[in-house]
Design goal:
The complex is a heterodimer of chains A (249) and B (232). Helices cover 33% and strands 24% of the residues of chain A. Chain A is α/β, with parallel strands linked by helices and 249 residues long. Chain A has a domain of 134 residues: Rossmann fold (3-Layer(aba) Sandwich). Chain A is globular. Helix content of chain B is 70%, strand content 0%. Classes of the chains: A alpha/beta (249), B mainly alpha (232).
């Protein structure tokens, strides 16, 4: 059980970025193309990711979400290869998903069980933990993230921000080395957006954050700008955001 | 069908799902076979007392009581008109007893406890039973989880229809609801994949691999700028 992680305070108190924890996994894209629905959504992408915080910007339809799904193995390359710490996402998807967690844009679809505590425990049960251990782990994880009061709540009664935080807790309880976030703040009000941003900053796990929320990536280590299925810019967040604004605003 | 579980620490909460469901089954059979008004009256009062022990939320009791009052009043009126009032009273007492007991069980029993009970039962049939039990348990939980979401989707669609001044019609509601339900099912399957649900393949081809954001902006330009890397 993960015990080192900082909490996600429900009251929105600031929390410093974590410097500790495991080294980020190395994600390598080798001449990757993806065809979906008759269109090429990723074009001949070669890229290595090894930073702790990586942002991905780009217009709608630029290939950002597909890039994230490639890392988790939810989408596999039509051509080329994606590896995570040497694991091929196409052939070793189950092992990859033990390393890479995924938080979806619509957390209401990610929380699949009726009670919050049950849903957080599900990830542990699927990794072979016994019922008692999974339940104890879920309760501890929710407490750690400041969400203990939600343990017995019906999932469908959560607010948008609570859903996003519960979805994140359900992923982090399984201790992934890397979490992919697909537009985590898109549907949130300012307070919940800030809480989620602090939660991401406080994680021990590495993060790949696909977003339109430009301030969110300001402190990141690296930022990619996607366009038309390829990489339009790759560098520090400041210049990346400036490039994005100049090119697409 | 939604999860009515309410957290608590009553004696019914502490009782296992198996004994509660077994007791509900026995009580159901007994109440159905009994025809004595005195016995049925006592059973109904006992069931109401058990429900009180479960401490259900007032709102839930109010909504169930309204529905139950309507049905029982209708049955009593019809049975009185037909000259079989005794049968009407028997029916009403049975309904009150069974609904109260069923509510007491659902309010004090987690979905996961019922799911575990089913899984334990089917696991006795070997590895095939275990696999089937896991899938059945998850399927039941998914139904309970997503029925309220589908109801909310239907409400939103109906609201949108009213906002556009359109007349109500089944196709106008059902077609978009079906599409939305299928999209939700796809998203849930993808989420289960992402969380490592066993038995799923390394990848499914998603119906909508990159869902657009609600605040849809312009699409990508046809040709990207060459890659720049200021660090290099």
């Amino acid at each position: 059980m993960h015990t080192k992680g900082r909490g996600m305070p429900a009251d929105g108190a600031p929390d410093a970025p974590s410097e500790s924890g495991r080294p980020p996994p190395i994600v390598h894209f080798d001449a990757v193309s993806v065809d979906l629905g008759g269109a090429t959504v990723i074009r001949d992408l070669t890229l290595t990711l090894r930073e702790r915080r990586i942002g991905v910007l780009g217009l709608n339809g630029s290939g950002k979400s597909t890039l994230g799904r490639l890392v988790n193995g939810l989408v596999t390359p039509t051509r080329g290869q994606v590896t995570v710490d040497g694991l091929d996402t196409a052939r070793e998807g189950a092992a990859v998903r033990r390393t890479v967690g995924f938080v979806f844009q619509a957390p209401e679809n990610q929380i699949v069980l009726p009670i919050v505590g049950e849903d957080v425990a599900l990830g542990l049960k699927m990794r072979g933990h016994g019922r008692k251990a999974a339940e104890a782990g879920a309760r501890a994880a929710l407490e750690r993230f400041g969400l203990g009061a939600l343990h017995d709540r019906s999932s469908h009664t959560l607010s948008g921000g609570q859903r996003q935080l519960v979805a994140l807790a359900a992923v982090l309880v399984t201790e992934p080395a890397l979490v992919v976030f697909d537009e985590p703040t898109t549907q949130l009000d300012l307070r919940n957006r800030n809480t989620v941003a602090r939660a991401i900053a406080a994680m021990d796990a590495a993060a790949l954050v696909i977003t339109h929320d430009l301030p969110l990536v300001a402190d990141f280590d690296r930022c990619l700008v996607m366009a038309d299925g390829g990489l339009a810019f790759d560098g520090p967040p400041g210049p990346a955001v400036a490039f994005y604004r100049e090119r697409y605003a | 069908m939604i999860s009515l579980y309410q957290p608590g620490d009553t004696v019914l909460h502490r009782l296992g799902a198996g004994p509660k469901l077994a007791a509900l089954l026995v009580a159901g059979v007994a109440v159905t076979l009994t025809t004595g008004l005195g016995w049925l009256g006592a059973a109904a009062l006992l069931a109401l007392a058990i429900l009180a022990v479960a401490r259900p939320p007032a709102g839930l009791i109010r909504s169930q009581a309204i529905g139950l009052a309507f049905v029982t009043a209708l049955i009593l009126a019809l049975s009185a008109l037909a000259g079989v009032w005794r049968d009407g009273v028997i029916f009403v007492l049975r309904v009150v007893a069974l609904v109260s007991l069923a509510t007491a069980v659902t309010v004090t029993t987690r979905t996961s406890a019922i799911q575990d009970l089913i899984e334990d039962g089917l696991t006795r049939f070997g590895p095939a039973g275990r696999r089937g039990a896991e899938r059945l348990g998850l399927a039941i939980a998914l139904v309970i989880r997503f029925v309220p979401e589908l109801v909310a989707h239907a409400g939103a669609l109906d609201e949108a229809r009213k906002a556009r001044g359109l007349k109500a019609s089944a196709p106008r509601l059902l077609v978009p609801l079906l599409v939305r339900t299928l999209r939700t099912a796809d998203a849930v399957a993808e989420a289960l994949d992402a969380r490592g649900y066993p038995g799923t393949g390394p990848s499914r081809a998603p119906v909508h691999p990159a869902p657009p954001t609600p605040a849809a902006g312009p699409s990508s330009p046809p040709l990207p700028e060459p890659r720049k890397d200021p660090a290099s």
